Amino acid sequence: MFRLPTAVARQKSTGSGLSNIYNPFQPTLTSAGLSRFGVSLVEMRPVTPLEPFVHSYLQITTTQPTVYPVMPDGMVAVYMSSSGTMIGGALNRAVNIPLLSAGEYFGIRFYPGVIRNFFDLNLSEISDQMVDAKFFPCKKFNQLHRKVYHHQAFNKRAAECEKWLLSCYRPQPKSRFDQALSKIIRSNGCSKVGELADEISWSSRHLNRQFLQHTGLTTKTFSQIVRLQQASRYICSGSRGIADVPVELGYFDQPHLIKEFNRFYHSSPGQLFERFMSDSYNQ
């Protein structure tokens, strides 16, 4: 197993919205995870107008074929190589994306529920799927990968994407959906769906329809994923023992926590730690 250095370039964040309250956790993108899968990372935050919507631009570099594990985090992502572009919908389960050859793989990560500020889409159509560039109703997007890979420098590739996003930007007024989304994230996924619907004066059914359209996930599933994100962060950082997590995050007990891990990650909390953080793990 070889190790590559991690270079992470970040712009100072002064944005609003989800950029202030949601920090998605992908164990592959930690220093230990990058070393585990033999890849390096550069990452950049967006310019100020896009900060509430775009989490980051990132580029993964690998010197040999490998897999790129992605955990459910409620996000929609654009995956780009020199040969084309794919759009990844919100995940209900962990996936391993095969990187079939050595090279540089570019990506855009969008916060949950924000695509409507660029395109009128129903994200429930691509949940747990990778679809081609035709899903975005934008002719420029079909050729974006060519413009991106025309540049060699990562920051220029990111700038090319920002130019495209700013040309598509159509800001939407804050809504009760945004209020519910924020409430779930601030509570680490512990908000009860019925109480949340009552709080914003919507029926649970209507709230669920909005979540399906704008995130690709049901309200309950989105909440479960947000909570599991925090649990994963605790476990992988070693800041909480597995026995301590259920109490802090509102799981009924440790078997409940393990059941959620198995459902979304197909692994136990201990297996997640071993796969991404433990030196004793062998691929």
Briefly say what this structure is.
The protein is α+β, with helices and mostly antiparallel strands and 283 residues long. It has helices at residues 31-37, 144-150, 154-168, 176-186, 193-199, 204-215, 219-237, 245-249, 254-265, 269-276, and strands at 39-44, 54-62, 66-70, 76-81, 84-88, 95-99, 103-110, 130-132.
Give an overview of the whole structure.
The protein is α+β, with helices and mostly antiparallel strands and 283 residues long. It folds into two domains: 17-168, no CATH class; 176-276, Arc Repressor Mutant, subunit A, CATH 1.10.10.60. It has helices at residues 31-37, 144-150, 154-168, 176-186, 193-199, 204-215, 219-237, 245-249, 254-265, 269-276; strands at 39-44, 54-62, 66-70, 76-81, 84-88, 95-99, 103-110, 130-132. The chain has a six-stranded antiparallel beta sheet with strand order 1-2-7-4-5-8, with helices on both faces. A hairpin with a 2-residue loop joins strand 4 (76-81) and strand 5 (84-88). Helix 2 (144-150) packs antiparallel against helix 3 (154-168). The longest helix has 19 residues, at 219-237. It is globular and about 50 Å long.
Describe the SSE topology.
Elements (H helix, E strand, L loop, with lengths): L30 H7 L1 E6 L9 E9 L3 E5 L5 E6 L2 E5 L6 E5 L3 E8 L19 E3 L11 H7 L3 H15 L7 H11 L6 H7 L4 H12 L3 H19 L7 H5 L4 H12 L3 H8 L7
Antiparallel strand pairs: 1-2, 2-7, 3-6, 4-5, 4-7, 5-8
Helix pairs in contact: 2-3
